[in-house]
Automatic annotation (TrEMBL):
Residues 3-64 form the HTH asnC-type domain. It comes from Azospira oryzae. This is AsnC family transcriptional regulator. Keywords: DNA-binding, Transcription, Transcription regulation. Signal peptide: none annotated. It holds the Pfam family HTH_24.
């Protein structure tokens, strides 16, 4: 799908406020509501917009400890990676799982837990028990400097 300036504006504004009304969105980009809604639906159908969600405050939910965990695997086979990815997808504390290169780790996880005891339980009783996990290196987040969930929509 080829996108124009209106589509880019729609994508940017919806990333900033997924609850914006179609009327407000149309007003902000300079279109009437009907063509604006058609464009939003076309962007959804093309897969550029994959969903809408609420952002929650982790600390207010009691999840005050965030960690980045590097995971090393014993074998670099598709079966081993598939097994790990299926197992880690079942762990709700994992916010993000990335298969990476250029490090000693094969995966990087971003997790949010209540405290150090909860982290220890997560690591020892769940992550380390996944078949193939041979190494774990953890860094704890002291402060979020940039916490952005929006993509730059290039002109």
């Amino acid at each position: 799908m080829e996108i124009d300036r209106y589509d880019r504006q729609i994508l940017q504004l919806l990333q900033e406020d997924g609850r914006i009304s179609n009327q407000d969105l149309a007003d902000r980009i300079g279109l009437s509501p009907s063509p604006c809604l058609r464009r939003v639906r076309a962007l959804e159908e093309a897969g550029l917009i994959t969903g809408y969600r609420a952002q929650l405050d982790a600390k207010k939910l009691g999840l005050s400890l965030m960690a980045l965990i590097g995971i090393s695997m014993d074998q670099h086979t598709p079966e081993r990676f598939t097994n790990f990815e299926a197992a880690i997808a079942q762990v709700p504390e994992v916010l993000e799982c990335l298969l990476i290169t250029g490090q000693q780790s094969d995966y990087q996880l971003k997790v949010a837990v209540q405290d150090m005891d909860a982290y220890q339980e997560l690591l020892l009783n769940r992550i380390n028990r996944i078949a193939g996990v041979t190494g774990v290196h953890t860094s704890f987040v002291l402060r979020r400097v940039i916490d952005r969930n929006t993509l730059a929509v290039a002109p």
